[in-house]
Amino acid sequence: MKRRRMTPRLLPLLRLLPLVPLLFAAGARGAPPPTAGIDRAAIDPAVRSQDDFFQHMNGRWLATTAIPPDRPSWGAYQQLADQVLPQLRTLLDNAIAQPDATPDSRRLADFYASYMDEDRLEQLGLTPLREELARVDALSTRQQLPQLIAHLQQLGISALYSVTVDQDSHQATRYALLLDQDGLGLPDRDDYLRPDDARAADLLQRYQRHVAQMLTLAGVADADANARAVLAFEQQLARLQWTAEQLRDPAASYNPRTPAQLAALTPSYDWRAYLRAAGLQDTVAPLIIGQPGYFQGMAALLDRTPLSTLQAYFKWQLLHACAPYLNRAAADANFAFYGQALSGTAAQPPRWKRGVRLINDTLGEALGQLYVRQYFPPERKQRMAALVRNLLDAYRADIDQLDWMGPDTKRAAQAKLAKLTVKIGYPDRWRDDSALLVRRDDLLGNVLRWRQSDYARRIGKLDGPVDRAEWGLPPQTVNAYYNPQLNEVVFPAAMLQAPFFDADADDAVNYGAIGAVIGHEISHAFDDHGARYDGDGNLRDWWRTADHQAFEDRIARLTAQYDQFSPLPGQHVNGALTRDENIADNSGLAIAYQAWTRSLHGAPAPVIDGLSGEQRFYMGYAQSRRVKMLDAELIRRLKTDVHAPGAARTNIPLRNQPDFYRAFDVQPGDRMYLPPAQRVRIW
Hints:
By secondary structure, this protein is of the alpha/beta class. Helix content is 50%, strand content 6%. Strand 7 (481-483) and strand 8 (488-492) form a beta hairpin.
């Protein structure tokens, strides 16, 4: 068959176009007309759009863009995050330079300055950690383990298991205490359990050498032998843990226990002593055990493991959690393994970037107040709110038109959508960090005091009403999320700018970029995980049996599409691990397209630079998904990341969109072509 050239079909310019209200276009009379908003320099004309749309739209960019040496990947999200960092640095530098700064600004300035004072860190060495290492050395009996573990958890160290406070998924109006498997130094339990895989075996050897290096820096005797013991201990922990796919099931992870039942589950581990040491002895909140079998196995493992091995393990956990805030030797060793060995990153980010990220992770809302005041004009929030309303309207219409869902389930879905909360920009109430002691000469102390303060804040929420005004990300974060237990979508301020939103571009490309992001997050309310929760955030089945089976059938077909995608020889996407994000990608794109067409109110979209509105929509989507990744990082993410690689997130949803075929004249025989019977539409 003769292959057509990839160049999109250019539409003839219309002599007269009706006036169309453009949501994103400049509103002032006499403003310049909107642009196409497409990065034409990124397009690879040697690749047909009908064969590989991701490569066609981004091929030249992929060929000419170098991944920065301090990053394992580079794409639209990373590009925007790097644009925000200098703005935050300026805010922090200004706070340092102000002698009459407010208490909040002074706290920010001192925390950041403590990170930037490398001379002070070199002078201190590992001295700031000596007290905690000595606490581990003082462990003399197994009966002291619960108290030590509780203390480490208050320092942000999830040794053996994690303790978190979240909504009770069966009664979303109250908080519960969640205990889950944790305590591994490698990203995934499977990293420990593939002895016949040469790559995995090499990783384990490098990991053991890294543990030995860190123990040596701390002055631990027989570091090599202790590192071998730590690795063997973590391998036994890994065998007890659930897989990433098993952890996706919220119903299986919901196992309420009373303190007495918890004690009966693991008689040799004193849970009452743990709860007292953790400050939880008086709470009436339910205890939810994520993986009961893990805790049984953990207790048995603790019983048979020498105390010397447990001491080495806890010291390693301390060193791992604190290394970035110690001297250069510790920080560099930490990066050499977790940055270079795991992800292939060539160099650490400049120190100021690491310092800004630390402030984001700790005093993020305090810094966010300054960011919003300086960089987030009110009109951006108004534009975002209008776009979200359009996406929600499209979703309501879409649910009514679904041919695979019955009327009862449709009514329940509409009821959930009606209760969805939308948060845009920044919180209405800022977090109060005024009680936190910050010293300019005590970086590790600042970090550990903040972790203790954050632990106390979270534990303090138990037995009180659920805080529905709380945000999970500060406004300067380049990300967005859906929370099923609050039934809310959250779009931080930093997300609403290029390359996801272009104020000079027309609606089509913006709906394809930021609109698809919004649609993606809304779709999480109805992915395989979110669809198990009702509009009030309770884990409750609101589906008719036949409708749920039809839903699962479509998910299975979509999962198979991703399973077949191979970004590297011998490496495939895990369709089960990524299924929720895949549903959100496919549904979010479809809903964004519907919202864009609805915004035209029946009028044809303008042709700009020879491109139809339909073409610009899909081109904007593809370029907002562009990303380039080091092979080591890609392999790591294929095992642990719930998101598919960028090429899969672009091409697979497009292959399932009928309007994409019309926009780019995709025909049988083209590599992007998928027979209609094989295309999957969920939402």
